[in-house]
Amino acid sequence: MKTRRYLLLLSCLLLGSSFILLPDWPNLDILKDYPKVGETCSIDGKSNATANKKAQNRLKNRYRMPVNNVFEEMTIQDIIDLPSGTKVIKPPLNSPNHSRAVSVIGFVKDVNFGGTKGESCNCGATDRGMVDTHIDLVLDGNDTDETGKNLIVAEVTFRTQILAQNGLLASNIGNKWTKKNLRDRLLGRRVKFSGWLFYDYDHHGETWVVDPDNTFDRNNWRATAWEIHPVMAIEVLN
Questions:
Q1: d(Cα 238, Cα 19) in Å, to the nearest integer?
Q2: Is this prediction's pTM over 0.85?
Q3: Mean pLDDT for the stretch of residues 151-166
C-alpha cells in the first residue's frame, strides 16, 4: 500500500495529474510467452545459466520499488567513482552498492537497443520489442567526446516496460517506454533517471576506470560498468 501511495504522489508531482486509483503491482517473476509463445522466462534468466550468472540476472530483472520507496541522489561522477575493481578483480555480487536505489541527472546522448543477440537475463530474446533499451548519459549536453570517458548507461527492461505501460512508474513522457518513444522523447534532453545500481560484469573490460590506457580489450566505450539497471522512473527536466 505504501508503494502505491508513493507512486501516486510522485506521478502527480511530476505530471500534475489528479489522484486516481492505481492497479495492484503485478508479479513478474515469471514472464509468459517470452521470449516466444508458449515459453516462459523467470527472473533467473536462462535455465542453463551458471549460479553466478543467475544471481546477476536476478539483479538485472528487478522490478519492485526500493524499501520505503526512496531513491538516493547521486551524480554521474559519483557513479563513475564507485569501486570497479581491477583488470582481473571485479566488484563482488554482494557489494552493498547493488542494494542502492539511486537517482541521477544527465543529458541523453544516445538511445539504442541492447542485447539483440540474446542476453542470458532475457532468456535469449532477440525480438527488438523484448530486449533492453540502453540509454547513454553524460553530464554535459555539449559533450562531443566519442571515447565514452564521461558516459554511463541506464537501462529500461522488458519488465519495467510492462510496469510503465500499466501506469505504475513515475514518468512525464507517458507510459510507453519502447525504444522508439524513449529515443523520440529523451535524446538530447536533460533527464532524471531513478532505478537500481548494477555492475554489468559483461562490460568490465570495456571501461576507462578499469583500463585507463585502453590496453586490456582495446575497446573501451564507457566510463564505468556501474549503471542504472533497471530504470524505475523517468523525469525530463527543463
A1: 24
A2: yes
A3: 98
